[in-house]
Design a protein that fits this description.
The chain is an alpha+beta fold. It has one domain (about 15-70). It has one helix and six strands. The strands form three sheets. A two-stranded antiparallel ribbon has the order 1-2. β1 (about 15) and β2 form a beta hairpin. The longest helix is centred in the last third of the chain and has 11 residues, at about 60-70. It is globular.
Length: about 70
């Protein structure tokens, strides 16, 4: 059911990731981790890569992304 007070409830947000912040381009309640596919509520989003424009659910997922990209050895 559509939440009348929050029409974006349950929708994936589109973000532009910056160095130390992000901008909401399309409102939503969460983003999806690029590694695990898990939903990340926007108020819990702490890990992302601004160069690849990807979000990560936790530090481990972020490290896995860096390893896959070849930026860590």
């Amino acid at each position: 059911m559509l939440d009348r007070l929050n029409p974006s409830a349950g929708q994936v947000a589109k973000l532009r990731y910056l160095d130390a912040d992000f901008q909401v381009l399309v409102p939503g309640t969460h983003v999806v981790c690029a590694i695990t596919g898990k939903a990340i509520p926007l108020d819990e989003l702490k890990y992302w890569n601004w160069q690849r424009q990807e979000a990560y659910v936790d530090a481990h997922a972020s490290q896995q992304a860096e390893l896959a990209a070849g930026t860590l050895s």
